[in-house]
Amino acid sequence: MGRMSMLGLALVAALACTVSTQEEQAQHPLTNMPPSGSVQTAFILPSFPDKKFPAGGLVDVVVGLHNEGSEAYNVSLIAGSLNSPADFSLHVQNFSMAAYGEVIGPGEEASLTYKFVPDARLSPRDFVVALTSFYTDSKGQWYSTTFFNQTVDIVEQKKLVDWELIMLVGLFAFILLALAYWAYTTVVGWGWVKPQKKRAKRAPVPKQQGPVDLDEWVKGHPYDQYMRKRNTAIKK
Ligand SMILES: *[C@@H]1O[C@H](CO)[C@@H](O)[C@H](O)[C@H]1NC(C)=O
Ligand SMILES: *[C@@H]1O[C@H](CO)[C@@H](O)[C@H](O)[C@H]1NC(C)=O
Ligand SMILES: *[C@@H]1O[C@H](CO)[C@@H](O)[C@H](O)[C@H]1NC(C)=O
């Protein structure tokens, strides 16, 4: 990151030198681009070929560079921005710079991958995305080629769990249940259906094993002898 900002500063400084005669203000490579060099470009968008970029999602661009000049170029940086479709000078977001240092000889080609993330807070609508490569010749002169400058669709990122949908389904189920309950109570009210009463659970009654012989256990017991004596006494 430090190296990238150093490069960015070097570029800004180089630009400031070239334009200082015209304007005495802070310069930025995205608003004050160096002249176009003899590099032809082409790009592919492997992850989003339809140019529908998710807000907060990583977008890859593979850029092919072809040096059509007579000297070697050192492709040092790629930078880009997201701009208002109504007014290009309105930089809504500046993407981070990427450093390369790829030297392309005359007639040679190279391909580089640039990655950027449209801000997650962007509202889903059209924007212009502009991506530019910056390179130097052997004398250190800066050049630029914008390889992408198009209207894109910023779309909502697909959520892993769609809570809104889950809430909606839950609400729908609740309404269905409420309707079913209302229909049931109404029908019961009309007397078409008898409400089912829950049967009260009674404690299980133990099975009786026949009359208990009380005399059985007292036989031979002193109590038995006492009773027999009493009975005979009463009979007398
Ligand atoms: C992006 O950079 C430009 C200069 O190129 C600057 O004017 C603008 O304020 C920056 N925008 C943001 C959102 O940082
Ligand atoms: C290409 O440029 C980068 C920075 O702009 C530099 O660090 C690197 O040494 C250069 N490569 C060559 C081969 O000159
Ligand atoms: C992108 O294109 C618009 C016009 O469509 C132009 O005004 C703007 O300067 C271009 N940006 C770059 C970085 O080339």
UniProtKB/TrEMBL annotation:
Subcellular location: Endoplasmic reticulum membrane
Alphabetical list of Pfam families matching this protein: TRAP_alpha
InterPro entries membership: TRAP_alpha
Transmembrane segments: 165-193
UniProt xrefs under PROSITE patterns: PROKAR_LIPOPROTEIN
Family the entry assigns: Belongs to the TRAP-alpha family.
Subunit composition and interactions: Heterotetramer of TRAP-alpha, TRAP-beta, TRAP-delta and TRAP-gamma.
Protein name, per record: Translocon-associated protein subunit alpha
Organism: Dunaliella salina (Green alga)
